[in-house]
Amino acid sequence: MKRTLMALAAGLVLVAAAGCAQPYGRNPEMMGAGGSAGWHGVHGMGMGWGMMWDDPALGLTQEQRAGIAGVQAEFRRRQSALMEKMHQDDGHSTAPEGLFDEPAARKAYDAMAELQRQLFENSLEERKQIDRLLTPQQREQIQMQMRQLQQLQQMCRG
């Protein structure tokens, strides 16, 4: 186990070195359907917690993989619908003849803020559902990996 964790840490260092060498910004290859990076996409180096499910060191069972895939599919469906609505409601409210309409602008802002809140709530719910599928050891291993990634990201910035 310790050897596996050390190999994983060494791999993360290599990923971080490559990530530090890349320009910061959105990577089109990391974006999901609809062009949105979402929770699983761009996180500094392009590696978020959602990408860790492919790590063989976690030792996920077929049942866990299937459960996670189902949770993620539902998450993507829900997020996609909200993102589509956000793109339709661009938040630019004008009165006839292009005049500024403050009440309409505030209403548009409130609607956009509610959609963003729902995106956030969905991501929390996804994480809780996936956490319930994992063993305590798997959750601890993911937490350790995330701490290592955060440290590496800080090194890249500094």
Chart the SSEs and their pairings.
Blueprint: H1 2-21, H2 62-88, H3 102-133, H4 136-157
What does the model show?
Mean pLDDT is 75; it is low at 22-48. The protein is elongated, with a radius of gyration of 19 Å. It has helices at 2-21, 62-88, 102-133, 136-157. The protein is built from four helices and no strands. It starts with a helix and ends with a helix. The protein has 158 residues and is mainly alpha-helical.
Report the order of strands and helices.
HHHH
Tell me the structural class. Answer: mainly alpha
Per DSSP, the total helix count is 4
What about the largest sheet?
A: none
Net shape: elongated
Low-confidence stretches: 22-48
Mean pLDDT across the residues is 75
Beta-strand content bin: under 5%
- Helix fraction, binned, reads 55-70%
Straight-line N-to-C gap: 31 Å
Number of strands: 0
Global Rg: 19 Å
Keywords, separated by commas or semicolons:
elongated, mainly alpha, about 160 residues
Structure at a glance:
By secondary structure, this protein is mainly alpha-helical. It is built from 4 helices and no strands.
